[in-house]
């Protein structure tokens, strides 16, 4: 193959084999390789990433997908000599992918340390095998995300830990606050941190001394108090005080504790804030009668929260089946199992979408299917025609439905009784006859009728079925 005559704009004319050959060839020019770098085949693009003639800019773009191939490119050492800051011009995604390789060489790490994108330096700060001097350099980085990543390193020396505990950025201090190796004096310093989210992270610590817990409880910040309210290792009077906080966020959090007194649950059911009642609706120890009452809650958010449960009693399901929100009722209608009372309620739902979903349920039974087969909405009747099992008499009714789409659906059923085939083969709608013509179970008289059909597509469909 003569690559010099290839026009990079017409490389798509190459077959797969030709593209692979061009991408591999040591004689392929840079413009051809640049064109092939956008080839739809990953195999072709990987070959381009290993070709020593591929331009540095293209290698930078390919590094995100093919980091190992780029590092194994035979021309890379020469490129590095020609461009000492080679990786500094690579896109951040490419350098990050190179850093993700466990055996990334030291020169890649050094380049990442100097890369202008903070995302690259953040990825570098998370490398487990980073040399101490590089960790120290990154702890002084201008990007708070980079310093935060350093603060999360498990092998952080204490001097750097102390430095980062006093960092100007609260996200960095938040990361320090969660470290298991935090010295006691630093822990107590962070208890008094000026930012509430740092103190909230301190409040999450399982090993927090009781005096620190009580000190945090004296503040008035809702984030901190909400974090404390989820704990069970506080004095009872403090827990009770938090559960009755004027802040809904704190009251909701108190209901998320592992265990709570029964009185709290009773009180939460009549709480003025819907977020608190929603938190109650998530409790794993909620009694069935409470679920039934919450299913009729005035707040939509509470009712939607109940839908997340898989242990709803029949009474709660029935209440949700009558919810004012159509999409909520649609969700109920799609449930795997439903009590009979809920099925009957949904059968007369004002939303045709709900009734359509209901129509294809396998647990409706003949009587409910018959009612839906008389529905005013053609979509609902078509849903009935798609039901897994239909009595013969109901199929006959639907085969005479005034809507052609319903009759077409009936004609497509594999379990269609033989006596309905002549009826549907004589249907005035060519689409219905087309569905019949494609069947393999047609008797001779029906085939003869369809072979003389006035519609060419019907005759063609019949012939295709015979030849197939």
Head-to-tail CA distance between termini: 44 Å
Helix fraction bin: 55-70%
Q: Profile the largest sheet.
A: none
Q: Which regions have little confidence, pLDDT < 50, spanning 5+ residues?
A: none
Percent range for β-strand residues: under 5%
Counting DSSP H or I runs of 4 or more residues, the number of helices is: 35
Radius of gyration: 35 Å
Number of strands: 0
Sum up the overall morphology in one term. flat
Averaged pLDDT: 93
Based on helices, strands and strand pairing, what is the structural class?
A: mainly alpha
Task: Outline the fold blueprint.
Elements: H1 16-24, H2 30-36, H3 42-50, H4 56-62, H5 67-71, H6 76-82, H7 92-99, H8 106-114, H9 118-125, H10 132-138, H11 144-151, H12 158-165, H13 170-177, H14 184-191, H15 196-203, H16 210-217, H17 222-229, H18 236-243, H19 248-254, H20 262-269, H21 274-281, H22 288-294, H23 300-306, H24 314-320, H25 326-333, H26 340-347, H27 352-359, H28 365-373, H29 378-385, H30 392-399, H31 404-411, H32 421-425, H33 430-437, H34 444-451, H35 456-467
Helix pairs in contact: 1-3, 7-9, 9-11, 11-13, 13-15, 15-17, 17-19, 19-21, 21-23, 22-24, 25-27, 27-29, 29-31, 31-33, 33-35
What does this structure look like?
- The protein is an all-alpha fold.
- It is 59% helix and 0% strand.
- It has helices at 16-24, 30-36, 42-50, 56-62, 67-71, 76-82, 92-99, 106-114, 118-125, 132-138, 144-151, 158-165, 170-177, 184-191, 196-203, 210-217, 222-229, 236-243, 248-254, 262-269, 274-281, 288-294, 300-306, 314-320, 326-333, 340-347, 352-359, 365-373, 378-385, 392-399, 404-411, 421-425, 430-437, 444-451, 456-467.
């Amino acid at each position: 193959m003569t690559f010099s005559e290839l026009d990079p704009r017409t490389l798509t004319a190459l077959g797969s084999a030709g593209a692979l050959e061009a991408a591999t060839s040591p004689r392929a020019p840079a413009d051809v390789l640049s064109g092939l770098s956008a080839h739809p085949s990953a195999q072709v693009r990987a070959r381009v990433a290993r070709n020593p003639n591929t331009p540095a800019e293209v290698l930078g773009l390919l590094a995100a997908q093919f980091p190992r191939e780029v590092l194994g490119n035979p021309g890379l050492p020469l490129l590095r000599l020609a461009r000492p800051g080679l990786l500094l011009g690579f896109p951040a995604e490419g350098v990050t992918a190179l850093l993700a390789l466990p055996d990334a060489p030291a020169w890649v790490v050094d380049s990442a340390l100097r890369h202008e994108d903070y995302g690259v330096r953040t990825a570098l700060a998370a490398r487990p095998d980073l040399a101490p001097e590089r960790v120290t350099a990154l702890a002084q980085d201008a990007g708070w995300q980079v310093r935060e990543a350093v603060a999360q390193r498990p092998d952080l020396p204490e001097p750097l830990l102390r430095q980062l505990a006093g960092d100007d950025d609260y996200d960095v201090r938040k990361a320090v606050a969660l470290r298991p190796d935090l010295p006691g004096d630093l822990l107590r310093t962070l208890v008094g941190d000026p930012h509430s989210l740092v103190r909230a992270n301190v409040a999450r610590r399982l090993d927090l001394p009781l005096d620190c817990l009580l000190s945090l409880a004296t503040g008035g910040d809702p984030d901190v108090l909400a974090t404390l309210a989820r704990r069970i290792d506080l004095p009872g009077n403090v827990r009770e005080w938090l559960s009755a906080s004027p802040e809904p966020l704190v009251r909701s959090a108190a209901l998320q504790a592992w265990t709570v007194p029964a009185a709290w649950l009773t009180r939460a059911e009549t709480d003025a804030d819907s977020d608190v009642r929603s938190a109650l609706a998530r409790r794993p120890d909620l009694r069935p009668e409470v679920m039934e009452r919450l299913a009729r809650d005035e707040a939509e958010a509470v009712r939607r929260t109940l839908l997340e449960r898989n242990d709803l009693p029949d009474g709660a399901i029935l209440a949700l089946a009558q919810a004012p929100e159509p999409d909520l009722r649609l969700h109920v209608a799609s449930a795997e199992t439903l009590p009979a009372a809920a099925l009957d309620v949904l059968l007369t739902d004002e939303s045709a979408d709900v009734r359509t979903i209901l129509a294809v349920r396998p647990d409706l039974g003949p009587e409910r299917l018959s009612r839906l087969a008389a529905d005013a909405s053609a979509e609902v009747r078509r849903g009935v025609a798609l039901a897994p099992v239909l009595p013969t008499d109901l199929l006959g009714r639907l085969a005479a439905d005034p809507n052609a789409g319903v009759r077409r659906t009936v004609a497509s059923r594999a379990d269609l009784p033989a006596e309905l085939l002549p009826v549907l083969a004589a249907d005035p709608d060519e689409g219905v006859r087309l569905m019949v013509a494609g069947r393999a179970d047609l008797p001779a008289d029906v085939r003869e009728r369809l072979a003389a059909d006035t519609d060419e597509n019907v005759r063609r469909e019949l012939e295709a079925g015979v030849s197939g």
